[in-house]
Amino acid sequence: MIDPATLARLARLLGVTAAELRVQPLTGGMSNHSFVLARGSDQWAVRLPLPARVGMTPDPETEARVLTVAANERLTPEVVAFDVETGVLVTRYLQGAASLNAEQIREHACIDRIAATMRRLHSLPAPPALGVFRPTKLARAYIDAALDLPGARHDLVNERRRWSAEFIHLAEEYEAAFKPAALCHNDLVAANILDDGHLWLVDFEYAVRADPIVDLAGLSGLNGFGPDNTRRLLNAYYGPASVPVSVAQFDRVVRMVRFLAYFWALAHDGNETADDLQRFAAAMAAVLR
Questions:
Q1: Is the confidence at residue 21, as pLDDT, over 80?
Q2: pTM
Q3: Are 22 and 37 in contact (CB under 8 A)?
Q4: For domain 4-92, is the CATH number 3.40.190.10?
Q5: What letters, b where the CB count within 10 A reaches 16 and e where it falls short, cover 242-254?
Q6: Alpha helices by DSSP H, the chain
Q7: Was domain 98-288 assigned CATH 3.40.640.10?
Q8: Which of 20, 121, 173, 218 has the smallest number of CB atoms closer than 10 Å to its CB?
């Protein structure tokens, strides 16, 4: 839960007293320290400072700027407050919105809506301080952390070593082919897309400057898209006659994104959400096999 000193600071940010606030954990993520604060009919989503991570994520101030840009276009909930000193981020809580699930996100009508939302996001100016997506750098950082994990079975260690080489190769291939041209969310699992009749994107902690294909591949690779779903997504985003990549090239970016997710989960095993991360890593490994 939120400690009393932090709750008092949040109350000051919101212009209320701590005694007025009700606190409830916000579930659904594997890495956030998130809560809902309520006072009467007012509700806010609060994310406490995140622990140090392997790899690259925006600093809290840059993430707040990304959210402000996206909120101005109604792509993410309004930023209510950001505390520079502590990194606490407060946004408006969407009371009537629900996260998409695995079945909904693969429906053709939903894919069309998400594609339109992504086009809007990718057209926005990225804050100058936002980091560039460099998967080779991330691959090496995550692989180093993952291969140092104790207690893994011999066959899994060998598999990870084989996958490490393939991951780095695909990352190098991506960097040679694509330029960091757009503001990308970079974590489009179904739980990060909310629907209340309007689609909202949340959890921009991994936002980067990248080619839009990173978000398209992430949406496909992290949500179990089959060939039919993928064709629908590419056609909806680019237009049927304007898709700039082949199916084979897109599939290789999808595999790279799946490796990124798998090794990310291994690299962060050992924190308080280790069980969730282990289940996620096992599920992603099954897909990669």
A1: yes
A2: 0.92
A3: yes
A4: no
A5: eeebeeeebbbbb
A6: 4-14, 60-72, 108-122, 135-147, 154-177, 213-221, 227-238, 247-267, 274-288
A7: no
A8: 20
